Structure formats: structure tokens, C-alpha cells
Amino acid sequence: QVQLVESGGGLVQAGGSLRLSCAASGSIFSINAMGWYRQTTGKQRELVATITSSGSTNYADSVKGRFTISRDNAKNTVYLQMNSLKPEDTAVYYCNADLKVVTSPYYAMDYWGKGTLVTVST
């Protein structure tokens, strides 16, 4: 019923910038929050940044001051502006949405995109 599609990943040199986008579509009743997580081979998936529909944000300490999360509620889209990228930011970035579908508008569930690869070279 719900699809999350990420875009904007790629190869960038250290110190550069990338902007990730994620659009949610389908039979969505409401979205409580959206966010970005990342995972490197052999590591657990970790939170990067989240944002609620009201605009409250949360960031991992490692990206504070460098990354900015934003959203367009009307488009069910979340963005991640990544500046001053470091090699350690290299990972697959996954979009997440905590939302309710129209067939079950009583509680929210998590949905995930398939991920987009970000590679930061030295």
C-alpha cells in the first residue's frame, strides 16, 4: 500500500555536499514522522536524522552541524541536505516513515525505502 523511494545518492569528494530526497506514496492516512538511517556492511543500521510532521528534529551527534533534515508535508517528502561530507559518512542511506494507512488509521507502522548509496572519497 505504501512505497518510499529515495534519490540523490552518489559519489562525492570529502568536503562536498549531497541532497537526498524521499517521497512516500500510496494509501496514506497520515504521517507522524519521517527520517533517514544509514548502514555500512557489518554494522547495525543507525539513525541519522528524523523529523515529525510538526517540524521537530533529531540528529545523530556525528552529523550535527553538517546535515539538515526537512520535509514537505503536502508532498509526503523528506529531504536530507548533507554538507561537509566525510569518508565515514559512506553508507547506504534508508528512508523511514512512521505512518497510518487508510485501511488501518488507528495506529502507525514503520515503512522503509530500499536505500540509496552515498560514497565519500578522500
Task: Compose a concise summary of this entry.
This protein has no helices and eleven strands. The chain has strands at 2-7, 10-13, 18-26, 28-39, 46-52, 57-59, 67-72, 77-82, 91-101, 104-112, 116-121.
List the SSEs and their pairings:
Blueprint: E1 2-7, E2 10-13, E3 18-26, E4 28-39, E5 46-52, E6 57-59, E7 67-72, E8 77-82, E9 91-101, E10 104-112, E11 116-121
Parallel strand pairs: 2-11
Antiparallel strand pairs: 1-3, 3-8, 4-5, 4-9, 5-6, 7-8, 9-10, 9-11
Termini separation (Å)?
41 Å
Percentage of residues in DSSP E strands: over 45%
pLDDT below 50 for ≥5 consecutive residues: which ranges? none
Number of strands: 11
Helix content: under 10%
How would you explain this protein's 3D organization?
By secondary structure, this protein is mainly β. It is 0% helix and 65% strand. The protein has no helices and eleven strands. Strands 2, 4, 5, 6, 9, 10 and 11 form a seven-stranded mixed sheet that branches. A four-stranded antiparallel sheet has the order 1-3-8-7, with no helix packed on it. It is elongated and about 50 Å long. 30% of the residues are buried.
Characteristics:
4-stranded antiparallel beta sheet; 7-stranded mixed beta sheet; mainly beta; 65% strand; 122 residues
